[in-house]
Design a protein that fits this description.
The complex is a heterodimer. Chain A is an all-beta fold. Chain A contains no helices and eleven strands. In chain A, the strands form two sheets. In chain A, strands 2, 4, 5, 9, 10 and 11 form a six-stranded mixed sheet that branches. Chain A is globular and about 40 Å long. Chain B is mainly beta. In chain B, about 0% of the residues lie in helices and about 55% in strands. In chain B, strands 2, 4, 5, 6, 9, 10 and 11 form a seven-stranded mixed sheet that branches. The radius of gyration of chain B is 14 Å and the shape is globular. In chain B, about 35% of the residues are buried. Classes of the chains: A mainly beta, B mainly beta. At the A-B interface, strand 5 and strand 10 of A face strand 5, strand 9 and strand 10 of B.
């Protein structure tokens, strides 16, 4: 099992829709989890951090399911500007460097 | 968050040559990392840049191919040596942990260096 796995998508959703994607991880000892957003030809930018059961920031909600070892990202009321690749990241064995999933592509259409 | 810059932002190089990428942070940071993102792929950690000592390389990456320097808490370089077309990628530096009492729990990335090797 890979350390961090994501459904690559793409997820095509209309504006205003709610969309969710999951990220599964193999290290049951992981304590922190991150969602990054990466726009085309840009660097990843931190979207949300998750340290306990979940986190919410406006239209974005991240939830952690430790029993099943996955985190999810829920986007409500999708905007065109939400179109991007969403990367899940979890600290690696060294503690600070991150292991990234391959990312999930989201396209929000008018 | 810290402001991170990278030079060059992009380059096109001939095979067999070497390119040194610089990463500059506007604040002292505890840790600096170098990642590679090949076309259509996610980020892969190359190494952790250690201040004043040899970098810690991940499996599949070696110092002869990717020498790294980190002379202080705000600056690091990555050299891609004896390049081949397979080295064409985006190279990103990232930082963790602002020094001086400001704890930063997550990593932030520089804008990346886009390298094309012909």
């Amino acid at each position: 099992r890979k350390e961090v796995e994501q459904d690559p998508g793409p997820f095509n959703v209309p504006e205003g829709a709610t969309v969710a994607f999951n990220c599964t991880y193999s290290n049951s000892a992981s304590q922190s989890f991150f969602w990054y957003r990466q726009d085309c030809r840009k660097e990843p930018k931190l979207l949300m951090s998750v340290y306990s059961s979940g986190n919410e920031d406006g239209r974005f909600t991240a939830q952690l399911n430790r029993a099943s070892q996955y985190i999810s990202l829920l986007i409500r009321d999708s905007k065109l500007s939400d179109s991007a690749t969403y990367l899940c990241a979890i600290p690696g064995g060294g503690g600070y460097a991150l292991n990234f999933g391959k990312g999930t592509s989201l396209l929000v259409t008018p | 968050s810290a402001v991170i810059s990278q030079k060059p932002s992009r380059d096109i190089c001939q095979r067999g040559t070497s390119l040194t990428i610089q990463c500059q942070v506007d604040s002292q940071v505890t840790m600096m990392f170098w990642y590679r993102q090949q076309p259509g792929q996610s980020l892969t950690l190359i190494a952790t840049a250690n201040q004043g000592s040899e970098a810690t390389y991940e499996s599949g990456f070696v110092i002869d191919k990717f020498p790294i320097s980190r002379p202080n808490l705000t600056f690091s370089t990555l050299t891609v040596s004896n390049m081949s077309p397979e080295d064409s990628s985006i190279y990103l530096c990232s930082v963790y942990g602002l020094a001086g009492g400001m704890v930063q729990e997550t990593q932030y990335f520089g804008p990346g260096t886009r390298l094309l090797v012909l």
